[in-house]
Amino acid sequence: MQDIKKKFWLEKFDCFSITGKDARKFLNGITTNNILNSENKVIKTCWLNPNGVLRALVEIIVLEKNLEFIILAGNTDEIIDNFNQIIFPADDVLLSEPFSINRIQEIDESSSWRTYLPIFFKTEDKEFKIYKNKLKILNANDLKLWKINQAIPSLEMEINGKNNPLELGLKDLIDFNKGCYLGQETMSKIKNVSSLKQEIRIWESFESNLNLEVEDKNLYINSAKDISVGKITSIFKSDSQIKGLAMIKRKYLEEGSYFFSEIFGKIIINKSVGSIFL
Fold first, then answer.
1. Do the Cβ atoms of 36 and 60 come closer than 8 Å?
2. In angstroms, how far is the first alpha carbon of the chain from the final one?
3. pTM
4. Cβ(151)–Cβ(272) under 8 Å?
5. Cys-Cys with 235: which of 50, 63, 147, 244 at CB 3.0–4.6 Å?
6. What single-letter DSSP state applies at residue 42?
7. Numbered ranges of CATH 3.30.1360.120 in the chain
8. 245 and 203 in contact (C-beta within 8 Å)?
9. What's 7-150's CATH class?
10. Which residues fall within 8 angstroms of residue 41, CB to CB, at 6 or more apart?
11. pLDDT for 1
12. Do 266 and 260 touch, CB atoms closer than 8 A?
């Protein structure tokens, strides 16, 4: 019997299988974590562009005869098209058609989402319905808020063609010792000179009079808008709170925990328990 106090994240994600004797070697060369030597059954990793910008947040399930590539945040068609373009004829690598997979993991408010091991079910699995009915599953609103508090990046928001995984607090998903992979040169350069320009932060507004007509997503050092310190990337609104994620220029992080948004007024910023920076 499950502990009724425990909460669970259940979400359906796109997935595809990768088979062939070169499958691990192939993924090791295009993702940030160590796929070849890891003993983990579920490997969290990132897919970058050649300039080190995050294109997808991924989990890889290591099975006996194949790898399953779970896209937690990213464009499935873009990933599959790109992979097919870079698989050489000599490579023993084959991609399946995409399918959906149900991902379940325990969560809490004080631990990173990377702490708990997820489990996976295909929708047709008979055990899936029985298993999920025993759990306290977060509803869509609570899940969105929890993801904000964890600073989990979303496609078209934090994964926007500009931000790298080190700025997004995903340092622990990068193996700096494994050798060459897509975007590796940029990751090594940033790490070696500690040259992060910005970091992701959770922001929260306490204003009651919001200027919702304004489209200015910038954050400023004060209400005079003298200096832009960053930009809002995600917004969560409920009856009781307004918060979201923002990319904050690193040189202003020591200026204090309060900044100004033309839309949301005075805001406070905090780190998330899910972020690890250089």
1. no
2. 41
3. 0.94
4. yes
5. 244
6. E
7. 7-150
8. yes
9. alpha beta
10. 61, 62, 117
11. 46
12. yes
At residue 254, the pLDDT reads 84
* Structure letter (DSSP) for residue 63: -
Please give the C-alpha separations between residue 172 and each of 157, 213, 276, in angstroms, as whole numbers. 21, 39, 7
Residue pair 200/167 in contact by the 8 Å Cβ criterion: yes
List, for residues 91-114, the tens digit of each pLDDT value.
999 999 999 999 999 999 999 999
**What is the C-alpha separation between 159 and 55, in angstroms, rounded?**
6
- Give the Cα separation of 106 and 137 in Å (integer): 9
Class of the domain covering 197-270: mainly beta
Q: How far apart are CA 197 and CA 166, in angstroms?
A: 10
pLDDT of residue 5: 82
Give residues with Cβ within 8 angstroms of 218, minimum separation 6.
Answer: 225, 228, 230, 231, 232, 261, 262
Amino acid at 134: K
Kindly report the backbone phi and psi dihedral angles of residue 74, in degrees, each rounded to the nearest multiple of 5, phi listed first.
160, 175
Domain with CATH 2.40.30.110 in the chain: 197-270
Whole-angstrom distance, CA of residue 274 vs CA of residue 245 = 13
pLDDT of residue 124: 86
What's the pLDDT score for residue 3? Answer: 54
pLDDT at 206: 87
Cβ neighbours of 17 (radius 10 Å): 18
pLDDT at site 55: 98
What span, in angstroms and rounded, lies between the C-alpha atoms of 259 and 251? 14
Encoded amino acid at 12, one letter: K
Q: What is the C-alpha to C-alpha distance for residues 134 and 217, in angstroms, rounded to an integer?
A: 41
Extract the residue ranges of the chain whose pLDDT is less than 70: 1-4
